Structures are given as C-alpha cells and as structure tokens.
C-alpha cells in the first residue's frame, strides 16, 4: 500500500512540475486613456486561436491595472482581451514582454464623428451586380472615448439587394465578421453593433443586386465622408444623374475612378447610373470583361477571422482595394484642379497645346509610379525620389502661364 501511495505521489508531482514547465505567464497593465489613470477591475481574458476562439484563462486587473494569466498552450496563437465597460480591447501576444493595453470609457454618441474616405467598388455580369463599399470612420474625440451602441453604423441597401459579407476592423486589429440587424421602422436599413474606438475603424460590406446591364444607385452615408469615390472596371460605364456632382474619370490598372465633387459628402450620395459588365483587377491584373461573381452567401458569419493565412490574404486584398482607391481619387482630384486652371486661363495656340501634352505625360508617369508602388516593383527610396521629382514638375506645369 505504501508503495502504491509513493508511486501516486511522485506521479502527481511529475505532472505538476511538467505542467509548470510548459505554462507561460502573460503579464501586463491596462491604462484608461480617457481618465488618464490605471484601469482597475476590468475583465482580462486569454484567448487561444485555432478552429475558433477558446478562453484559456481569465482574471481581473488590480488597483494598479496589472494582470497575470497563465498560458498552457504556448505553441498556439493567442491574444489578450480586456473588457472595459462592455467594450473589447484586444492585443496579440508576440513575445514575452509585458503588455501595455489602452482602454477608453464608452459613450452612446460622439458629436462630429466622420469618415476620412469612402470607396465604392463594383463589378458585374449580365445577371448580378456586386457592390463593395468601404469606409474609414475617424474618431478624434478629446478626451478620447469609444462610441458604443447597437446602431454604431447603419447600412442602407438598394432595392432587391442581399448581403454577401460584412466585416469591420478597428485600427491594426483583425477583420471581424459582423451580423447586420434590420432596424425597426426603417426599410432596407441595417444596424452594425461594433464599437467605434479612438482612431480609425474600417467598415467593409459587400452585397449584390439583380442586374440586366444597367442600374441606378442612390447610396446613403450614416456619417459625413471627406473624400468619396466610385471605382469600376474600364469596361463599365459610369453616368452621374446630376451635372457637376462627380469629377471627370481617371483610369489606372484597368480601373476607373470617379470622385464626388462635394466634400464632405453628407447623407445621400449624388445618384448615378452604372452600365456594362466587367470585373475589378485582382492584385494589379487587368480587368476582365466576363466576371464570375462568387455565389451569394445566405448570411454573414459571426466571429473574428482566425486563421493567420486567411488574415494575411484579406490584408493583402484590402491593401490593394484601399491603395487603388486612394491613387484613383487623388488622380481625379489633381486632374480636376488642372482642368479648372486650364479653363480659367486663355489659350494661346501651340504653347497651350504643348503644356497640355506635358501634363498628360506627367499624369501617365504618376499613374505608372503609383502602380509600381502597389505592385511592389519599386523600392521605397526610388518611389520617394521619383514622386518628389514628379510633384515638382507638376507644380511647375500648373503654375506656368500659357
């Protein structure tokens, strides 16, 4: 009997020691940026990523905002979630250094909330028009606070439209699939319950509508958007339904960009018509004429994008989406300024034509430079030097009297 007892004792001791060896303690401190002091009493959750998300350990911050949790699966990917006033603040674990996490007090509404950029991209075949909208909402509250309520962002769908996906990302976080909720008494309006934290929050949603080669779109924005643009394949035709609401189109890499003249765009976007078929280029490839949109999804899934490869792929697609929009809208704006100056300056025959040819050449060089940057075929140093030279040439061309 004594021998059996000793065996059990040493076995338990061995298991305890080996478990201690493989466990890793994650420490950190939580700071309330709104109050300017440590955040005490917040829930802290260590979450393991795999097939989904699983709580591995829980604790609370002490009076100094400090916490410590034990990681029992060090080979898995983890992140720490701090829950402050029912809002999640996540940080990925990348090393052994103590985490420094920032939280903010939550409010129901932030006056003056706005968006810095909005991009609408579309592609179509003869049956379906697929529309992707992305908006960068900027929270510049002072002192910094988080807007948290059930309808933080409203999506107004066109008639007969159906969702394919809805994703939101806060700052440098991962994309999170969000389930849009129909609003009472507001037809075709869906609410997103995703906190808008200080800094930038990206809202990206995709939907499709029946399409027979031509459709009129009347989009609505829940927040003012400083720069708004529409992107479409060069094989499709954009037509503003009211004059002087969109700038003349500029094309690059198989895409055409149309930028709204008004800044910011508040509420209803000026109505426009889109016709024709085509697909947007993927990672710099040229647009095709015969698209193959993905089959419509019944409902967006709920929960974060977990797999590392999946997150990386989405990040690359999002970078191309965003960079293309930025390049096109900046090009449209520059072209509009140049055209306005051209119209305000009397022409003088051959000299004016020469300046026009020069501007066209500079514009093509700018497009090629930005395309090389997006594709990664130019170094940052070469890009900066070439861009600076082009900017100087453009400024000289714009200021030169004809």
Could you outline the blueprint of secondary structure elements for this entry?
Elements (H helix, E strand, L loop, with lengths): L1 H21 L1 E9 L4 E2 L4 E7 L3 E8 L5 E6 L5 E8 L2 E6 L6 E5 L2 E2 L6 E11 L3 E12 L6 E2 L5 E4 L5 E9 L5 E2 L3 E2 L6 E4 L6 E12 L3 E4 L7 E9 L3 E4 L9 E3 L2 E5 L12 E4 L27 E2 L3 H37 L5 H26 L4 H20 L3
Parallel strand pairs: 1-8, 9-12, 10-20
Antiparallel strand pairs: 1-2, 1-5, 3-4, 3-6, 6-7, 10-11, 11-18, 13-17, 14-15, 14-18, 15-25, 16-17, 19-24, 20-23, 21-24, 22-23
Q: Under the CATH scheme, which class of the largest domain?
A: Mainly Beta
Instruction: Please state the CA-atom Rg, rounded to the nearest Å.
Output: 26 Å
Biggest beta sheet attributes: 9 strands, mixed
State the secondary-structure class.
alpha+beta
N- to C-terminal separation? 107 Å
User: Level of helix content?
Assistant: 25-40%
> Mean of the pLDDT scores?
77
What does this structure look like?
The protein is of the alpha+beta class. It has 3 domains: 2-103, Immunoglobulin-like (Sandwich); 114-327, Immunoglobulin-like (Sandwich), CATH 2.60.40; 345-399. The chain is 26% helix and 35% strand. It contains 4 helices and 25 strands. It has a 9-stranded mixed beta sheet with strand order 22-23-20-10-11-18-14-15-25, covered by helices on one side. Strands 1, 2, 5 and 8 form a 4-stranded mixed beta sheet that branches. Strands 4-3-6-7 form a 4-stranded antiparallel beta sheet, with no helix packed on it. A hairpin with a 3-residue loop joins strand 10 and strand 11. The chain is globular and about 60 Å long. The termini are far apart.
């Amino acid at each position: 009997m004594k021998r059996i007892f000793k065996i059990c004792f040493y076995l338990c001791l061995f298991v305890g020691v080996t478990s201690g060896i493989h466990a890793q303690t994650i420490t950190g401190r939580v700071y309330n940026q709104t109050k300017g002091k440590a955040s005490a009493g917040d829930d802290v959750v260590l979450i393991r990523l795999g097939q989904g998300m699983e709580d591995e350990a829980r604790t609370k911050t002490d009076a100094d905002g400090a916490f410590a949790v034990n990681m029992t699966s060090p080979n898995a990917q983890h992140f720490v979630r701090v829950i402050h006033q029912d809002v999640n603040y996540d940080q990925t674990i990348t090393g052994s250094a103590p985490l420094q996490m920032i939280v903010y007090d939550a409010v129901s509404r932030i006056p003056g909330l706005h968006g810095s950029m909005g991009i609408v991209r579309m592609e179509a075949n003869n049956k379906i028009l697929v529309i992707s909208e992305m908006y960068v909402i900027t929270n510049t509250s002072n002192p910094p606070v988080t807007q948290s309520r059930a309808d933080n962002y409203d999506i107004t769908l066109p008639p007969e439209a159906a969702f394919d996906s809805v994703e939101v990302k806060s700052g440098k976080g991962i994309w999170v699939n969000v389930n849009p909720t129909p609003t009472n008494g507001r037809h075709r309006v869906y609410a997103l319950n995703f906190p808008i934290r200080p800094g930038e929050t990206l809202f990206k949603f995709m939907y499709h509508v029946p399409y027979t080669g031509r459709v009129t779109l009347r989009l609505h924005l829940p927040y003012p958007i400083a720069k708004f643009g529409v992107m479409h394949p060069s094989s499709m035709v954009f037509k503003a339904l009211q004059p002087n609401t969109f700038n003349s189109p500029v094309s690059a890499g198989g895409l055409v960009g149309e930028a709204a003249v008004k800044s910011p765009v508040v509420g209803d976007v000026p109505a426009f018509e889109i016709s024709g078929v085509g697909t947007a280029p993927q990672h710099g490839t040229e647009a095709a004429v015969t698209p193959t949109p993905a089959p419509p999804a019944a409902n967006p899934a709920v929960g974060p994008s977990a797999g590392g490869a999946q997150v990386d792929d989405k990040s690359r697609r999002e970078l191309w989406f965003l960079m293309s929009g930025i390049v096109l809208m900046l090009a449209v704006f520059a072209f509009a300024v140049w055209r306005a100056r051209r119209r305000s300056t009397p022409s003088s025959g051959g000299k004016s034509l020469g300046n026009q040819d020069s501007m066209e050449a500079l514009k093509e060089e700018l497009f090629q430079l930005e395309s090389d940057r997006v594709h990664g075929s130019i170094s940052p140093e070469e890009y900066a030097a070439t861009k600076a030279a082009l900017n100087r040439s453009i400024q000289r061309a714009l200021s030169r009297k004809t």
